[in-house]
Amino acid sequence: MLDFTNKEMKLVYEVGNRGALPMNIEHASQIEQAERLAVMEERQRLARDLHDSVAQALYSITLYADAAHMAFSAGKQQVGLNHLQELRNLARETVQEMRLLIFELHPLELEKRGWVVVLRARLSAVEERSGLQIHYVVDGEKRLPLSVEGELYKIALEALNNVIKHANAQHLEIQIRFDDLAIRLEIKDDGVGFNPEQARQSGGMGLRGIEERVALLGGRLEIDSFPGMGTRLSVSIPSCVTGSF
Q1: Cα separation of 20 and 29, whole Å?
Q2: Whole-angstrom Cα distance, residue 48 to residue 42?
Q3: How far apart, in whole angstroms, are the C-alpha atoms of residue 131 and residue 110?
Q4: CA 210, CA 226: separation in Å to the nearest integer?
């Protein structure tokens, strides 16, 4: 058996630390780059959402305003009033959409209310605007670290956006379960379905972003879907990652 003096052990420890330093710096640099990329992608997604929803809604509002003006000028009072009613409804929807985007831009809302509550507000607005029937179930709700809640909220939001834009679904079911082993998020719709492998290869439907967020949380992602058969997306995050159980 070899015996080492305290001085020799200290020397070994210092050499080991020096060797690990470049690796630590490299790892920190990779994390910083990944965070920058995530921020950039999030800004791009929000810009797309602004264009797809709010910008188009504002354009439609101007069309209804012009149509109402033309109708009143031609003496068609009822037609003009109908256009004004459509303009009013669309303006209300646009205000609600802006509020939802502000939720995403300000993590403080998540910190105050939690991702479960903020997601419920989002779902209520979507249900009212789109006519999609949504069943939202939460079992054993617990608050998590803000960083974890933020990622879970974005995962759910990306999946919801996919349903709205691509699924042509009538019903949507979202279940969130907290237990001693994991946090489980499941989103099911009765839409047109798709081929997950083709979507991954094409980089479509935001699957890459969802996969990266789940991996960042050390979780597991399952997607069951087939054209014409709807979609089930399941996310499981181990409780040890959240530090909240």
Answers
A1: 14
A2: 10
A3: 26
A4: 19
Residue 184: strand pairing partners: 177, 236
pTM (two decimals): 0.60
What is the pLDDT tens value at each position of the chain, 245 positions in all? 444 455 554 544 454 555 554 555 555 566 566 656 665 666 666 666 666 667 777 888 899 899 999 999 999 999 999 999 988 888 877 776 776 666 555 556 788 889 999 899 888 888 877 789 999 999 998 999 888 898 899 899 889 988 988 899 999 999 999 998 999 999 999 999 998 888 877 766 678 889 988 998 999 999 999 888 899 999 999 987 665 44
Give the CATH number of the domain where residue 189 resides. Answer: 3.30.565.10
96 with 141, same domain: the answer is: no
In a domain, 177, yes or no: yes
Are residues 9 and 77 located together in one domain of the fold? yes
Contact 222, 233 (CB under 8 A): yes
- Cα gap 170→45, rounded to integer Å: 25
Distance (Å, rounded) from C-alpha 9 to C-alpha 13? Answer: 6
Greatest pairwise CA separation for the chain in angstroms: 105
